[in-house]
């Protein structure tokens, strides 16, 4: 580096270009391997499953073989989608509401220590009640519609996001805080320019977990009392010993979970572009 | 620099209203209380500094160098004594953007590219406009030798380059007092030497007053017009050493007999702190 720091090489030698190309190609190969390997893993597991069912001649109502599940999935696709729809709405609404409440409360906690001291222990207490215990209470309170399931999904995502968001908002570099003070920044400016961005990696690690737990919350809510939805279908299939439908339903739910997770990760890639320093 | 020094000396004949001192500390004492013990970080520190001068602070670890800078920048309140920055209180000087601060780690915001980091002071503390004729963020990046790196994110820059960005940010708005707390402490020797020379150039071009904390005797002697030696436990002034090396200084001055003698004297002093 000279006094005038060197510019990014514009007229690099051809050999350097070739090396860059080779490096990029190697990276590309690695990336594809990372994408393809899970498919091999999945195929191997499917084979083991199929072999176990075939060799031990497991009866279909105890455990179906993979091809039966696939056929059921295909034949009952319309019905599965019809039931996925309410579950998806509940999970997404719960996700949005629960996280919004958690982020808001975390913001208040960070700025008003007294509120933190008053309500954090209560949040811990409510969080320690298992979902299966909270769910019936909410169903009694809110009836049989979508709202109790949304509430359960919201409550289930609320706590992890609250904890992570508080941690993230407080993870600011102390020297950056001093810098803001020297610049006479207001609390609002410190929040908007410093705390929020610092918290994003923490927030997204909570949101990625929340994407799957919100679906779990919606399904548990449907178990307590519902005519439709993935949860209701699971109960129905179990009582009818329709194990093929049960497996297909579970698959359908997890596909949605994965899709939800990947969406959040995509947003994270887009929003958090800098190298996170002390990211969780 | 010459211009700035002249300004300080250009008091009207009869000298009633001389330009205010860049810094005037009287009997500054700072005590930190914690649950387990109380620490006296500074005790009875008095110091005055003319506008446009370059002071280096030297002393053993824990002698209160950072604390002194923090008091001047209104980050820490003194327990006793008075501080005046350019004739105002530190809080007024801070609000007036008279003070620029460069921290030991560059403390750039990692999500902002170089030029947006330099621009930060314009976006907080009441969205200030740059005074007419003041150096714009781009000019400052040019000044610290980072033309072409405007769009680079901090993690794409080397430690020395990050520190230059931090200096450019501290210079935005033309602060009249620049406080630097071991800004080059984490850099390798070569980079540090280059930045030292460059800092003297920037000081000459901007005419700002600089207080520079360092652990390095050579850095203190090379940069400062005066070296303030602090002693530890409690932090107090050990001695104010005037540096009579010729200006403008180049790195080669460090081989001169005067410099070697000065460094030896500072080292001997430091050992008694
Ligand atoms: N916020 C604080 N709370 C309690 N004690 C503090 C605080 N800041 C500094 N001190 C104490 O004050 C003394 C002086 O600290 P200071 O950071 O000013 O030293 P320093 O000269 O900058 O040291 P170094 O060269 O290691 O950076 C130390 O004993 C330190 O423990
Ligand atoms: Mg220090």
From TrEMBL, chain A:
Keywords: Cell membrane, Membrane, Transmembrane, Transmembrane helix, Transport. InterPro entries: MetI-like (IPR000515), MetI-like_sf (IPR035906). PROSITE patterns: ABC_TM1. GO terms for biological process: transmembrane transport. The keyword Nucleotide-binding does not apply. The chain crosses the membrane at residues 36-56, 88-110, 122-144, 150-169, 202-224, 244-264. It holds the Pfam family BPD_transp_1. Residues 80-268 form the ABC transmembrane type-1 domain. The keyword Transport applies. It is found in: Cell membrane. Its main location: membrane. It comes from the Bacteria. One of its GO terms (cellular component) is plasma membrane. It is a multi-pass membrane protein. PANTHER family: ABC TRANSPORTER PERMEASE PROTEIN HI_0355-RELATED, ALKANE SULFONATE ABC TRANSPORTER-RELATED, MEMBRANE SUBUNIT. Belongs to the binding-protein-dependent transport system permease family. This is ABC transporter permease. It comes from Limobrevibacterium gyesilva.
TrEMBL record, chain B:
It comes from the Bacteria. Pfam families: ABC_tran. Residues 23-253 form the ABC transporter domain. Keywords: ATP-binding, Nucleotide-binding, Transport. PROSITE patterns: ABC_TRANSPORTER_1 (PS00211), ABC_TRANSPORTER_2 (PS50893). The keyword ATP-binding applies. CDD domains: ABC_NrtD_SsuB_transporters. Gene3D superfamilies: P-loop containing nucleotide triphosphate hydrolases. The keyword Nucleotide-binding applies. GO terms for molecular function: ATP binding; ATP hydrolysis activity. Belongs to the ABC transporter superfamily. This is ABC transporter ATP-binding protein. It comes from Limobrevibacterium gyesilva.
């Amino acid at each position: 580096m000279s006094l005038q720091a060197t510019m990014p090489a514009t007229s690099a030698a051809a050999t350097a270009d070739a090396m860059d190309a080779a490096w990029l190609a190697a990276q590309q190969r690695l990336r594809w391997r990372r994408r393809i390997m899970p498919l091999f893993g999945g195929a191997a597991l499917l084979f083991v499953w199929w072999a176990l069912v075939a060799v031990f001649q497991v009866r279909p109502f105890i455990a179906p073989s993979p091809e039966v599940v696939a056929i059921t999935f295909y034949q009952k696709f319309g019905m599965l989608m019809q039931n996925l729809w309410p579950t998806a709405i509940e999970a997404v609404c719960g996700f949005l509401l629960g996280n919004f409440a958690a982020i808001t409360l975390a913001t208040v906690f960070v700025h008003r220590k007294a509120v933190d001291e008053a309500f954090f222990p209560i949040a811990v207490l409510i969080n320690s009640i298992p979902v299966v215990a909270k769910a019936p209470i909410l169903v009694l309170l809110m009836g049989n519609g979508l709202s109790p399931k949304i509430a359960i999904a919201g409550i289930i995502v609320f706590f992890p996001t609250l904890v992570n968001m508080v941690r993230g908002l407080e993870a600011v570099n102390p020297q950056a805080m001093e810098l803001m003070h020297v610049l006479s920044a207001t609390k609002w400016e410190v929040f908007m320019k410093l705390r929020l961005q610092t918290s994003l990696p923490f927030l997204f690690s909570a949101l990625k977990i929340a994407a799957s737990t919100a679906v779990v919350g919606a399904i548990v809510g449907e178990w307590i009392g519902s005519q439709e939805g993935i949860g209701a279908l699971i109960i129905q299939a179990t009582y009818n010993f329709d194990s093929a439908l049960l497996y297909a339903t579970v698959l359908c739910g997890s596909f949605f979970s994965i899709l939800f997770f990947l969406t959040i990760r995509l947003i994270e890639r887009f929003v958090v572009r800098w190298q996170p320093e002390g990211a969780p | 620099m010459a211009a700035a020094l002249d300004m300080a000396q250009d008091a009207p004949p009869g000298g009633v209203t001389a330009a205010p001192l860049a810094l005037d500390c009287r009997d500054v004492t700072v005590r930190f209380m914690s649950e387990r013990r109380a620490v006296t970080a500074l005790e009875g520190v008095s110091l005055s500094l003319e506008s446009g001068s370059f002071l280096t602070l030297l002393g053993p670890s824990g002698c209160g160098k950072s604390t002194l800078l923090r008091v001047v920048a209104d980050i820490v309140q003194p327990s006793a004594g008075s501080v005046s920055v350019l004739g105002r209180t530190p809080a007024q000087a801070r609000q007036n953007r008279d003070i620029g601060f460069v921290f030991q780690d560059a403390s750039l915001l990692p999500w902002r590219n170089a030029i947006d980091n330099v621009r930060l002071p314009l976006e907080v503390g009441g969205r200030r406009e740059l005074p007419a004729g003041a150096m714009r963020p781009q000019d400052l990046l040019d000044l610290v030798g980072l033309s072409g790196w405007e769009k680079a994110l901090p993690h794409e820059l080397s430690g020395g380059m990050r520190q230059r960005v931090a200096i450019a940010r501290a210079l935005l708005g033309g602060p009249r007092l620049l406080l630097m707390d071991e800004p080059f402490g984490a850099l390798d020797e070569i980079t540090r030497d280059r930045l030292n020379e460059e800092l003297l150039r920037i000081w000459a071009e901007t005419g700002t007053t600089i207080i520079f904390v360092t652990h390095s005797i050579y850095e203190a002697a090379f940069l400062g017009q005066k070296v303030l030696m602090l002693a530890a436990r409690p932090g107090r002034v050990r001695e104010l050493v005037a540096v009579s090396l010729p200006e403008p200084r180049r790195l080669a001055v460090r081989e001169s007999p005067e410099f070697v003698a000065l460094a030896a004297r500072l080292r001997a002093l430091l050992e008694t702190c």
